[in-house]
Design goal:
This protein has 184 residues and is an all-alpha fold. It has nine helices and no strands.
């Protein structure tokens, strides 16, 4: 297959490319991240991105090298995201353990969680959806934009709007809410 077929939107050429390289690329990603479900997700997203951006791609090497490089970079990014998430979880666990030492602290902690859940539930639907994809599914702005078929700028505005609304609604719990919203 040549890149001109892909740029022209040739579905058959794309299907042949997918069929030929999907399994080897999954195996390659698995060798980096050691999780087959994650590896398959990385390769599927890479193929979706390849199709979506077919008009813009500039391949100066072989298509094989290009695909492997994309999967390699995406796998490393996934590892980096996982490490950041784990660090946030560890920090939050440490912060919560150091503050939740007695029954009244535990009650405050539970009350805060309920307030945060209620505040998120009160966000406008699209704003809540974007916020949850960012904070709970750990998607980047670009991934959210692609998933929801909206502009990255719109994602950024929705996140800012959500944080502003949550800040107002959680003003009595601001210090704890800030820790939660930043870390998650």
């Amino acid at each position: 297959m040549n890149t001109d077929d892909l740029r022209a939107g040739n579905h058959k050429a794309y299907e042949m490319l997918f069929t030929q390289w999907y399994a080897p690329l999954c195996d390659y990603a698995y060798g980096i991240i050691y999780n087959m479900a994650e590896a398959e997700d990385i390769v599927q997203k890479m193929f979706c991105r390849l199709w979506d951006q077919r008009n813009k791609i500039e391949i100066h090497t072989s298509i094989k090298s290009y695909l492997y490089k994309m999967v390699h970079n995406d796998s490393l990014n996934r590892i980096k995201q996982q490490k950041i998430r784990e660090g946030h979880h560890q920090y939050l666990a440490y912060a919560m353990n150091s503050t939740v030492e007695n029954t009244s602290d535990l009650a405050t902690h539970n009350e805060l969680n309920k307030k945060i859940e209620a505040a998120i539930g009160n966000l406008p639907p699209r704003c809540r959806e974007v916020f949850e994809l960012s904070r709970f599914e750990y998607l980047s702005y670009a991934e959210i934009a692609q998933k929801l078929d909206i502009a990255s700028g719109t994602v950024e505005k929705q996140i800012m709007k959500a944080l502003r609304l949550l800040r107002v609604e959680l003003q009595d719990y601001l210090i704890f809410a800030v820790i939660f919203l930043i870390l998650f």
